[in-house]
Amino acid sequence: MPTKIEKDALTGRETTGHEWDGLKELNTPLPKWWLWVFYATIAFSVLWVILYPALPFRGATGLTGWVAREAVVPVMEAERARQEPMLARLRAAGPAGIAADPELRAFALAGGRIAFANNCAGCHGAGGQGAPGGFPNLADDDWIWGGDLEAIRHTIAHGIRAGESAEERISMMPRFLADGMLTAAQVNDVAEHVLSLSGRATDRAAAERGAALYAENCASCHGARGEGNREVGAPRLNDRIWLYGGDKAAVVRSIGSPRMGVMPAWEGRLDPAVVNMLAVYVHALGGGE
Amino acid sequence: MSRIEPPARVKPAAETAGAPAPLYASRQKVYPKAVSGRVRRAKWAILALCLGLYYLLPWIRWDRGPDAPNQAVLVDMQHARLFFFWIEIWPQEVYYLTGLLVLGAIGLFAATSLFGRVWCGFACPQTVWTDLFLWVERRIQGDRNARMRLDQQPWSGEWLRRKAATHAAWLLIAAATGGAWIMYFNDAPTVARELLTLQASGTVWFFFGLFTFTTYLLAGWAREQVCTYMCPWPRFQAAMLDENSLVVSYRAWRGEPRGKAKAAGVGDCVDCRACVHVCPTGIDIRDGQQLECIGCGLCIDACDDIMRRLGREKGLVAFETLANIAASEAATAGRAPGPERLARGMAARRAPRFLRPRTIVYAGVLALVSAVMLGSFLLRETVGLAVQRDRAPLFVELSDGGIRNAYTLKLSNRTRGTPAFAVALDGPAGLRLVVQDAETDAGGRPVLTTRPDGITQWRALVTAPPGLGLSDSTPIAFRLLDARGRAVESARSVFLGPKP
Q1: For chain B, which terminus, N or C, has the lower number of CB atoms within 10 Å?
Q2: Looking at the structure, do residues A150 and A212 belong to the same domain, yes or no?
Q3: ipTM higher than the 0.90 cut
């Protein structure tokens, strides 16, 4: 732009030399104090980059070697040390002992709530309501591997079919259709029989045909009347709760090619005190036995 | 001795020479002169009462039992309680404070419509502390003329000594003010000891410093500027005033024309400027009603003293209604100054009308708000029940087809005792209520225990057996029953289920 800095006749001040359609702008420089503060911030930022990790490159740690993560370590350690007496009591008491002591129970419910949100809610939902596709609801009264405090603790600590613990919960259901143990028609009949256990069969004749097949193939684990068996984690079949869905197609699929859910073992991942707290918390969700 | 007079106060003179008046005028320092009289005595009495209350109230003890603070007036931020003698307010009852503020505002309006700016002139903290600081200043630097002389002379040992002594005394008072403020929020003896041994917490030091600094600044330096420029009240208090309000007024019909005491044909005002010299805001009351006048009435004392010395009747400046001023004005129009004019003017006055629609409305609102507050306070429950429904999951389907909802019950107990309450469920027959960790009474109802002055939290499970035929949302309520089976509190919620 052609610039012509001149003195404005009216105000006696210099213009910036810019002109737009005859309009000229007075030159109003920044206040000196502002300018110097601005320069100071630039100098400060340069110093900052030299001294502190400010650049997004690996190794750009700054001369001081300061690391945010290290700064938080002593805080966390102090906090852990503060909690340690309580955690020791929680470890020693076990779920039953915690439930019997109002102070420990209050602590466990509060701590279990946080631990549940951090570790369990991803699959089991924020309130333990579960999710479709094999993530069981923990707030209802149906338990596959047992719902008393110790059973819950054991399941949390050792996991299910994850191969992470010698004491894990493990069982297998045969793939009756996929492995050719039953024909599709037989699977259909068994499915009708299974539905009849909770009074929902649509084809009475098929259900009766399936009774013999059920007694032969299923009753050893799921019980003669579908009452289930917690020893082997065989779910109850005569109630209204279905892990993989309770309509006929879902039941047929579960017989034909069952899915067996996996839960990691939390022992080793979490402090035993936390496992105990989780057991107490899950037990208190509403379905504990 | 040459007469020392501060420059006349600058009032914008827009009419001069057509140039726009400057928007900024630097402060002309005011040197109020000491004065004595009825109004001054009343002001001293109110000052002593207000300051005495402010400084001593936190030190009054009040026994509330072993687990509660024994300070009569205490805002306990940490435990979220407000203690006032036998009253204890919880945060959720903050509407009592709102009510007090409403009462304060309406009371201020009522007082203003009756007696003008009595709040500003007598009871406002800005006035009270400025008065106190002025008294200190007068004790150390002398009265008006001495102070003006001190300010105009070059720096000297005496100047330094007097100024330093004044500011030291001010700071001491300011520190006592800030210290007393802290005591309304902390145990007074404890925090006083902590402050004196320099062991108080950072928060305490911050607020101590803040209130010390603002007291010193506002009462020592800013003074009448707070009233004139900072305070919103002078801007709209005129809306509460009318011609029947008693306000500080100059009886111009009696005083004008001004002149020397012995001159002939002049009014009672001898133009001695005594009223101006004592004014804490540095104005001339003879100019009439003005924003800067705080209605303190010191000019009345000053003028009465002059009138007494001249052997004239008091009351040239007085608490007077504008209606009376107008009536006297009309009665004496065209009359020559003299005792006859004075008698006619005074005879034309009427007793001030205190019962006016405006004051009746204010009194009515005051009575109404007081009654509502008192009623709600006397009827307030000492126990509260709040119910939160679990949102995750909304409801749980049970293996037999039943439905269960979970609720968190929060039982707040505002007494120092530990009463227990049975909880009953209002809703469709068949719903079963179980409260985790709660004992049950003879009738099978869960019994909730309480903590003294605290909240207990319970998890309640409500189960609908299969076949109850509920809709997807059923209103229910939890009722608290005391030992005699009387319902003391209830809280509503809903019971959710799948769509039928």
Answers
A1: N
A2: no
A3: no
